[in-house]
Amino acid sequence: MSTPLIHLNPQIFPDPLSFQPERFLENPRLKRYLMSFSQGSRQCLGMQLAYAELYLVLSGVWRRFGGAAGTDSGPIPKGYGGRMELFETDKRDVEMEYDLFVPYGKKDSQGIRIVLKKA
User: Fold this and answer.
1) Closest CA to 47 of 58, 60, 34
2) What is the distance between the alpha carbons of residues 38 and 1, in angstroms, rounded to a whole number?
3) What domain range is 30 assigned to?
4) pTM above threshold 0.85
5) Are residues 106 and 77 in the same domain?
6) Do 28 and 68 lie in a common domain?
7) Are 62 and 74 within one domain?
8) Half-sphere exposure of residue 91, counting CA atoms within 13 Å on the CB side?
9) Distance between CA 90 and CA 44 in Å, rounded?
10) Same domain? 37 vs 53
């Protein structure tokens, strides 16, 4: 079984292609269907390490490029501040085109590309 068979099933996740993180707060039982790292005896051994790396990278990127300048959190340190913008990326670049146990996008896609701009 591949992950998209569960994650894109409208009987489990109504409107599965929409971004609705609150659905897990409204229905805590949905967590059992979250298969990002598989489950059971075949669960990914590096799951906790992967989560730790995600948190570190995302927090670093967000600190540098995700916050608005001039917030009440104090002055922005030198080298910080800026924004991220999508570059030549649209919905077709992230939609699943085919499944080879791992979902793949369209073959000619260059993936999600961003431009980092200084504030």
Assistant:
1) 34
2) 10
3) 1-44
4) no
5) yes
6) no
7) yes
8) 3
9) 31
10) no
Contact 14, 42 (CB under 8 A): no
For residue 75, CA distances in Å to 64, 69, 84, 116 come to: 13, 9, 20, 20
The reply to whether 60 and 113 lie within a common domain is yes
| pLDDT tens-digit map of 34-87 | 888 877 787 888 889 999 999 999 888 877 776 555 455 556 566 666 777 889
Local structure of 33: helix, strand or coil: helix
Contacts of 47 (CB under 8 A, 6+ apart): 37
- Same domain? 51 vs 27: no
Residue 79's region, left for phi above 0, alpha for psi from -120 to 50, else beta, is left
Q: How many domains does the chain have?
A: 2
Q: 68 and 114 share a domain?
A: yes
* Positive or negative: CA dihedral 24, 27, 28, 34: negative
